[in-house]
Amino acid sequence: MYLTEPRLTDVVKKQFLHKLNAYTGVFSSLLVMQLIGIFLGFGTGSGGSTSGGTLTVDYSSSTGDMPVVFTLLWAFSMGILVTTLAYRNDAFSFVSNRLSHNISSFLFLLFASVIAGTLATLAGSIIKFISLFQSNPLFTETSGLFSSPIDFFTMVLTSVLYTVLFASLGYVVGSFIQLSKFVLPLLIAAIVVIPLLQLNIGGLDLIASIVSFFGTETSLLFFLLKIIVTVIMLFAISIGVTTKTEVRK
């Protein structure tokens, strides 16, 4: 009789499939968050009135940004949730190590982010579709699947990439929280203090510089590279942090 050591790819595959079956609740919470975003999307647009002679035109607009915002919040919280003790203990139902756990978690977050980012873009289309049945007769479509498919799929890809970024950020934050419970109050304090300090980088405060680094990029290729490099760095940090924790607490 002899023992065989399972291959890393086999362990990762089993853990990934286990996460898909065990963590279905995160997708239910995603739908709830996006429904809230759709509802709020009707009240966050601009509006006004213009007149010329005897003609007066009242106009209002709805935005598809709110479902994306709520999806990013969901992705960040999901990244933290995957690192919690109960979720980590589920992973060790298999013969595994920290590396396989982190890889399977990354694949799960990536899979969930693709679904969430795609649905977030489609939620914006739902807002436009419902707007057709409102009393205002004039409706201008922007970047629809049929009217402008390239722009539409670019929006989907961008939404997915941002979702992956926020999920990765949540994962690294959760890893630090699992390392020490003091990280959470320090994180909350940093969120409050950093904007007040207005640390400048190139004439912009720290938060504005980070937002500008991603948000002002006009090249899809460079934006993709920025996201990939940042996500790899975040998960490398997570792996380094989790190797310092015990296999079980």
Provide a descriptive summary of the structure in words.
With about 250 residues, this protein is mostly helical. The protein has helices spanning about 10-20, 25-40, 65-80, 85-90, 100-130, 150-180, 185-195, 205-215, 220-240, and strands at about 45-50, 55-60, 200, 205. The protein has one domain (about 10-45, about 55-130, about 140-180, about 215-240). About 70% of the residues lie in helices and about 5% in strands. Helix 1 packs across helix 5 (about 100-130). The mean pLDDT is about 80.
Features:
249 residues, mainly alpha, two-stranded antiparallel sheet, 4 strands, transmembrane helix, membrane, Yip1 domain-containing protein, transmembrane
Task: Summarize the topology.
Blueprint: H1 8-22, H2 25-41, E1 47-52, E2 55-60, H3 65-82, H4 85-91, H5 98-131, H6 149-179, H7 183-197, E3 200-201, E4 204-205, H8 206-215, H9 220-242
Antiparallel strand pairs: 1-2, 3-4
